[in-house]
Amino acid sequence: MLMAVGILVLLLVGVVINKERSALVSWLSVGLLVATGLLVILQPVDGVVFNGLFVADSFARYMKVLVIGGAGLALILAMSNAEENGVHKFEYSVLALLATLGMMVMVSANDLMSLYVGLELQSLSLYVMAAIKRDDTRASEAGLKYFVLGALSSGLLLYGASLIYGFTGHTNLNEIVVAIANGGRSIGLIFGVVFLLAGVAFKISAVPFHMWTPDVYEGAPTPVTAFFATAPKVAAMTLMVRLVMDTFAPITQDWQQIVIFLSIASMVLAAFAAIGQQSIKRLIAYSSIGHVGFALVGLSSGTQVGVEGVAIYMAIYIAMTVGLFACVLSLRTDTGYVETIDELAGAAQTRPFVAAIMAILMFSLIGLPPLAGFFAKWHVFLAAIEANLYVLSVIGVLASAISAFYYLRVVKVMFFDAPIKQFAAVPGELNIIMGVSGFLVVTYYFTVGSPLASMAHTAAGSLF
């Protein structure tokens, strides 16, 4: 409620002050996200409201904090050179907040109706954000592609929801569990589950519903891509976890096959498709597809340990991704932002701090110990092995080894190739975000590892 009222107030503030003076609205937006985050943390009240449409539990609170954190950091990233990126309009911050509000509804959805409303509020805002740089044909193309494919995925999800309603007689997720447990599985219900999960898989860009990701990531302005790669992924993954672990718990055997397929396909395709990429943003797009596959390894286990693994993975993924985009936005030349990997040549000589943080994040994305990325993969693979999913674990480890090639290639270009461009000075806020991200990734085991595992354990426990 605070978030919704705050968005309307900020919309009025933006109109009254000045359409082009977006810095004030941007900082107020970050302040609103901080206030909402504190309210989520400091009001730990569990329960169901709005006649069963909305649920508040430990899992929802944990994921909402990640969503709000990812959205807030992405907004701060957007403030550096906002005009060049086309995100200097005050509407950008308002759209980001509307998308975040939709994600918070998704995270706490306890009914197929509220689930869809949250999903569409997020999606419609993201479509406009992708095309916000109106004079850029690539951004317009990205927005249109995202809109057309997003509409298709919404259709799949709605069709699945209608089948589930038809075969169980309920839209409330708690009542659907009871109906499935009492009535048993039917072929119509299984079809409904398949379509519903296909719609959600599109939102997390799991293969084979990933087609939009590389194009949209490349075409949209970089700060918008940073937003896409963080908060919406967490919200959609939360939705996937809640649906399969809670609503479809009586038919675990059936949904497990779907999730295992999505996981293997995402890990393998991303590992090979990223090898030939020259664009940095396309590389990050395939990297995010791969990491979704790794997170689904934990979910495939169908156990509390697996959900804990997913919760930890998403937190570490956000820290790494925000740091990576801060690095990309920091490497700016006279002609604009670096777009291809070759343009990073010699960054270690001209911008040693940025190159060092980017190298650390690349090693973490591979999953090398003792960096945070290693522990993220450790938790999900541990859950899969405990559930006897040995083949899935082996495929995951092999995909991780293959992905090392394209991550290390970026490090090689930065440190061993001769400089070809002079990089501009780095904005202060980006230095801070890079520094904090690098510090957390390196010292994860000694600093945030134990408290994060404890919070993930509490969050996952509320689903069982």
Automatic annotation (TrEMBL):
UniProt GO molecular function: NADH dehydrogenase (quinone) (non-electrogenic) activity; NADH dehydrogenase (ubiquinone) activity; quinone binding
EC code: 7.1.1.-
| Residue ranges annotated for the NADH:quinone oxidoreductase/Mrp antiporter transmembrane domain, each copy included | 109-403
Q: Name one GO biological process term.
A: ATP synthesis coupled electron transport
What top-tier enzyme class does this entry carry?
translocase
Classification via InterPro entries: NADH-Q_OxRdtase_suN/2, ND/Mrp_TM
Recorded catalytic activity of this chain's protein: a quinone + NADH + 5 H(+)(in) = a quinol + NAD(+) + 4 H(+)(out)
Q: Which Pfam families match?
A: Proton_antipo_M
GO cellular component terms given for this protein: endomembrane system; plasma membrane
* Sequence intervals crossing the membrane: 59-78, 90-109, 144-167, 187-212, 224-245, 257-276, 310-331, 352-375, 387-408, 429-447
Q: Can you say where in the cell this protein is located?
A: Cell membrane; Endomembrane system; Membrane
Keywords linked to the UniProt accession: Cell membrane, Membrane, NAD, Oxidoreductase, Quinone, Translocase, Transmembrane, Transmembrane helix, Transport, Ubiquinone
Its membrane topology is listed as: Multi-pass membrane protein
Principal place where this protein is found? membrane
Briefly state the protein's biological role.
NDH-1 shuttles electrons from NADH, via FMN and iron-sulfur (Fe-S) centers, to quinones in the respiratory chain. The immediate electron acceptor for the enzyme in this species is believed to be ubiquinone. Couples the redox reaction to proton translocation (for every two electrons transferred, four hydrogen ions are translocated across the cytoplasmic membrane), and thus conserves the redox energy in a proton gradient.
- UniProt similarity note: Belongs to the complex I subunit 2 family.
What is annotated about its quaternary structure and interactions? NDH-1 is composed of 14 different subunits. Subunits NuoA, H, J, K, L, M, N constitute the membrane sector of the complex.
Protein name (database record): NADH-quinone oxidoreductase subunit N
Native organism: Devosia ureilytica
